[in-house]
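Page 37, continued from 36.
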């Protein structure tokens, strides 16, 4: 997966998969070959559409879809990135959904298309049991990540710098991996550096939310 520091990370201190922002990347694996129609929503409004063709014989094993390119306000000064677009993916069929913009409350739906119907096969508002969710938090402090339905929770501590210095450049730290099983998060408590990727491999469906505990206490 790409490992690039997104400057828009500094806009948000919390995020959720039900309406994601630039702190959150959702990785979904397609299993059935075919053509998928995608809808990009901000709140309840459709801001763009796209097509994904999944053919296991294609050489690309993942496709990255940036929701920001479908937002006319974000994309107004960019040339050559139309609001509607066609993508292709092969191999294991990984679709990486994210936004490089500073807006939030985003949702992406995929509809499987064939000759008979166009059913909703995936919705980022409800994670599939095999999804991966990547959070990148930049502000030092304590955070809680919760599963919305099973009430599982974990604690994440983002370390402060040592006199403004870090062991390596921000965005270059290796990712931290956590599993979410029916029994909960494993491990349930971790520490990491600002902007370091936290990859949660889900084994249950539902939604995830991350909130700053420091912000809650400040209230």
């Amino acid at each position: 997966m790409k490992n690039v520091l997104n400057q828009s990370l500094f806009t948000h201190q919390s995020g959720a998969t039900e309406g994601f922002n630039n702190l959150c990347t959702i990785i979904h694996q397609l299993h059935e070959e075919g053509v998928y129609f995608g809808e990009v929503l901000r709140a309840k409004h459709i801001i763009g559409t796209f097509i994904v063709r999944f053919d296991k014989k294609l050489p690309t094993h993942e496709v990255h879809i940036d929701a920001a390119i479908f937002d006319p306000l974000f994309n107004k000064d960019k040339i050559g990135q139309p609001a509607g677009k066609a993508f292709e993916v092969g191999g294991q069929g990984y679709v990486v959904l994210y936004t490089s913009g500073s807006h939030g409350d985003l949702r992406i739906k995929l509809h499987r298309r064939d000759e008979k119907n166009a059913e909703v096969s995936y919705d980022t508002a409800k994670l599939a049991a095999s999804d991966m969710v990547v959070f990148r938090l930049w502000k030092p402090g304590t955070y809680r990540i919760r599963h919305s339905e099973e009430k599982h929770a974990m604690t994440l501590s983002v370390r402060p710098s040592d006199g403004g210095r870090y062991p390596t450049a921000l965005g270059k730290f290796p990712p931290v991996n956590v599993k979410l099983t029916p029994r909960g998060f494993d491990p349930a408590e971790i520490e990491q550096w600002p902007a370091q990727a936290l990859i949660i491999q889900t084994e249950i469906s539902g939604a995830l939310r991350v909130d700053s505990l420091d912000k809650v206490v400040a209230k």
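The first helix runs from residue 72 to 75. Flag for discussion at group meeting. The chain is about 5% helix and 45% strand.
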